[in-house]
Amino acid sequence: MPKFTEVRDFPYSKDQMYKMVADVDAYPEFLPWCQGVRTYKHTGGSLQADLVIGFKMFRERFTSHVTFTDDRIEVDYIKGPLKYLHNHWQFIENKDGGCHVDFLVDFEFKNKIFEKMIGGFFTEAVSHMIGAFEKRADELYGG
Ranges for the Coenzyme Q-binding protein COQ10 START domain (predicted)? Predict the structure, then answer.
């Protein structure tokens, strides 16, 4: 069960960073391995999302429930190739106008073969994904 946490400071505002992460429909434009997305069941502060993730021979669809609160985005697994997945982003405004971002992802595959294949690659993949969000923020907000 891989678990990864990352804490970073960005020169962009809490609102800018939150808006970028909350734009799930844009993920295929910049996230590595995200081949498609469909969002639906949009309600007050949540939605459901199907993401198609592909890498080499691996291609899977994940369905998640995404909840939006003032300074946090929570992602909880509904169905797909995992036993469970929990992901959160927390956004804290810095005194200088920038934003402190706390990221966590924790999951376990149902299939132990996938677990072994992805296990060694997991930290690198998540770090690469965080880098893609950072690059996207620079593109959108001018860093």
Answer: 11-134
- Output the six-digit token pair for 35: 């081949």
pTM of the model: 0.90
CA distance 41 to 44: 10
Locus of tokens 């459901």: 48
Domain that holds residue 134: 3-141
Residue 124 and residue 58: Cα distance in Å, rounded?
Answer: 16
Name the β-bridge partners of 86: 76, 106
Quick: pLDDT tens for 56-110.
Answer: 777 889 999 999 999 999 999 999 988 899 999 999 999 999 999 999 999 888 8
131: Cβ contacts below 8 Å, ≥ 6 apart: none
Counting the structural domains of the chain, the total is 1
Q: How many CB atoms lie within 10 A of CB 134?
A: 16
Contacts of 133 (CB under 8 A, 6+ apart): 20, 21, 30, 31
